[in-house]
Amino acid sequence: MTTRVVLLSMISVGLMALDHRQHLTAPVREGVQTVASPMHYLVNLPFDLVDHASVNMRSRRALLEENARLRDQHLLYDARLQRMDQLERENIRLQGLLESSYEVEDSVLIAELMRVALDPYRHILQLDKGTRHGVVNGQPVLDAHGVMGQVDSAGRTTSQVRLITDPGHAIPVQVNRNGLRSIAYGNGNLRELDLPHLPHNADVQPGDLLVTSGLGGGFPQGYPVARVTDVVREPGEPFARVVAEPTAALDRSREMLVVRSRTGDKYIDDEPLEAQK
Amino acid sequence: MTPGHGWLVILASFLVAYILLLVPLPAWANGARPEWVALVLFYWCMAVPHRVGVGIAWLAGLGQDALQASLLGQHAFAYAVAAYLVLKLHRRIRVYPLSQQALIVLILLSLINLVQVWINGFIGRPTPAMTYWLPPVIGTLLWPWVFIFMRGVRRHYGVQ
Q1: How many CB atoms lie within 10 A of CB B108?
Q2: B15 to each of A188, A238, B72, how far by Cα in Å?
Q3: Residue-range definition of the domain harbouring residue A123
Q4: Which residues on chain B are in Cβ contact (under 8 Å) with A47?
Q5: In this structure, which of A127, B60, B77, B137 has its CB flanked by the most CB atoms within 10 Å?
């Protein structure tokens, strides 16, 4: 028994090291995720049934009201979109003048949150879409208000998303007002992101919107990430302490968009370099 | 009873523990969720040590890692070590009154928690707040009920 426990401990340590260093290849991770997913579906099932029941038992009046409200909203968004269209066209033209590439539109996949409790000390969510639906590791995930995170490990029918507030997550951002670039780190608080690398004289103020800068290639450019809430300039410190609040409803959104095309692929892909040779 | 029947009961009890582990709780209660899988594991290690040993404990932990998206092997390691201790002491723990058993369980659950903190610290995750130590306490308070319930299940199905 003693030898067995020592042996198993050694195996676990080896496994943890491999998993942490991400030498566990994607198929292994995907396999683990796939084996676990029936259990996740089982736990999620009663909540799904309750949801279905509550949708089916809504009163006609409530539905009509909702329909009218959505129609109004749709009209409003359509009107805004018309202007957007024109702006986008203009943007493409200008980008063309600058000879830089610009992804017109990202295709998205709608995924729903599964209600299962995962490790409470990491900010990870489970979605009901997996590699079978075209989800791959590293894809950005958005909700209606901004960036939520990225796909951490994709299984066959489910996938896990690491939120931008996870202590192990960082996202390249820029201040929408003036294009100042920085990196926003999660600190484990769902309502906070840290920007630790901005000097005292950086032009950033509370209320500034931070959007993805598209650098690094992980996230497409221009999606809102957070709004600056606090800027503390301590004279003794080398950097200003900038805190921002994510715009996405990280703990409330049920439906999410998994972005399919990744604008920045060319930055991390070295194929173009090969082609130039 | 056939021996295969006993395995089914043991497997079912672990499945129930996994479900309790995954069921979403309101935010205020989420941090206080006891380690159900560990409690069930302790019971079986005490009651049928010739069937549920270190190997099963390791597998149960690995299953929890897969379900909870923690580092693969994190719980497996802790559970194997805890099960080893239970097996070493099971003759004594079995005859203790429930309150004393609960104390042993508190020590074991805290040990599991400590191992998690060490591993998390090792891979650079931030040290959790003091509420991190609430689950072992809750688990300890639940132990007498878990024990009585599991004993009832074991006797009813005649798991030897």
Answers
A1: 28
A2: 30, 53, 19
A3: 107-260
A4: 24
A5: B77
Chain A residues 152-171 with CB within 8 Å of chain B: 152-153, 160, 167-168
Q: Is there a contact between B80 and A9 if contact means CB atoms under 8 Å apart?
A: yes
B12 and B78 in contact (C-beta within 8 Å)? no
- What is the rounded CA–CA span in Å between residue A254 and residue A260? 19
Task: List CB contacts (< 8 A) between B69 and chain A.
Answer: 118-119, 122, 124, 126, 152-153, 160
Residue A145 resides in a domain? yes
Residue A91 counted as domain residue: no
Kindly report the CATH number assigned to the domain that includes residue A239.
2.40.10.340
Which of A208, A194, A173, A207 is closest to A241 using CA atoms?
A194
Question: Taking CA atoms, what residue in B is nearest to A124?
Answer: B69
Q: Where are the domains of chain B?
A: 3-24+32-157
CB pairs under 8 A between A and B: 108
Q: How far is A272 from chain B (nearest CA, A)?
A: 35
Nearest CA in chain A to B52: A1
Domain-located, residue A245: yes
**Taking CB atoms and an 8 Å limit, are B24 and A11 in contact across chains?**
no
d(CA A164, CA B7): 43
**Tens-of-pLDDT digits for all 277 residues of chain A?**
888 889 999 888 888 888 887 766 667 777 888 888 888 888 888 888 988 888 888 888 888 999 999 999 999 998 888 888 888 888 878 877 776 655 546 678 888 888 877 777 788 888 888 888 888 888 899 888 889 999 988 888 888 899 999 888 899 999 988 889 999 999 888 889 999 988 888 889 999 999 998 888 788 888 899 999 999 988 888 899 899 999 998 888 888 888 876 444 444 444 444 444 3
Query: Rounded to an integer, what is the distance from CA B141 to the centroid of its chain?
Result: 14
**Dihedral over Cα of B105, B101, B63, B35: its sign:** negative
